[in-house]
Amino acid sequence: MLFRRLRSRTVHHERQPEEEYIATGGGGGGGGGEWRSLTVWRKSLVYSCTGFTVIDSCGDLVYRVDNYIGQRRGEVILMDASGKSVLTVRRRKKLTPIENWQVYEGEAGDASRTSRPSSQNQPICTVKKHVNLLNANQNVLAYVFLGNSDKRYAYRIEGSYPNRSCKVLDSSRRVVAEIKRKEAMNEGASFGLEVFLLVVCPGFDSGFAMTLILLLDQMFS
What we know:
- The protein contains 1 helix and 16 strands.
- It has one helix at residues 206-220, and strands at residues 3-6, 10-11, 14-15, 20-23, 36-41, 50-55, 61-67, 75-80, 85-91, 100-105, 125-129, 140-146, 155-160, 165-170, 175-181, 195-200.
- The longest helix has 15 residues, at 206-220.
C-alpha cells in the first residue's frame, strides 16, 4: 500500500494520532540509503495533451500525466508507466479565500454522484496553499494535512516553484523531498524551467512527492 493507517505508532520520532495516513515507501524519512533522483519533464508524451513525463536515472518511464482536452477541470491523475492510476488530485469546491486540494488513491470516483461512501472517496490528505496575510513565513508555499484534518500539518513545502527550487519538510523540519533545477552537462546549455529534478529521500514515496509537484503547478503556474 502506498498509504497505510497507523495506530499509536511513532513516526519521525513523534507520536502520531490513531487512524492517520503517512506517505511511505517502506521506512521513515531521513533513513539510510540513497536518495532517488527523477527527471521531470513538463510535457505529455501524448499528442494534443498537456501534462508531465517522469523518468528515472536509467532513462525508464516512471510516472506520467496526460491531461486531455475536455477533461474535468480541477482534477489531475498521476499514472505509472503502464497507465495505471496511482493518485488523483482534485481541487476542493469550497467557498474560502484559501485554495485547497485533496489527494485520493487511484482514480477516485466523484463522491457527489453517489450516496454510498467508499475508501476511494476518502482523501488521504488535504493540501492548502499558504496565504501570506501578515507578511510572515514568506518562504512557505503550502501545507499538507492528513485526511480531512487541517489542525496540524504533516508536511510543509517551502521555496519557489516558479524557480524550481523547493523543499518538502516533515513536522520535524527534516527534508524528505526537493525540487531542483537540472544542470546540463555541456557548459552554457540549460534545460530551462520545463525540465527539472525531483529528489526523494529513502522511505518517502516518490509518487506522493510527484503529486505535490502537480499541486504546486496548479497553484503557481
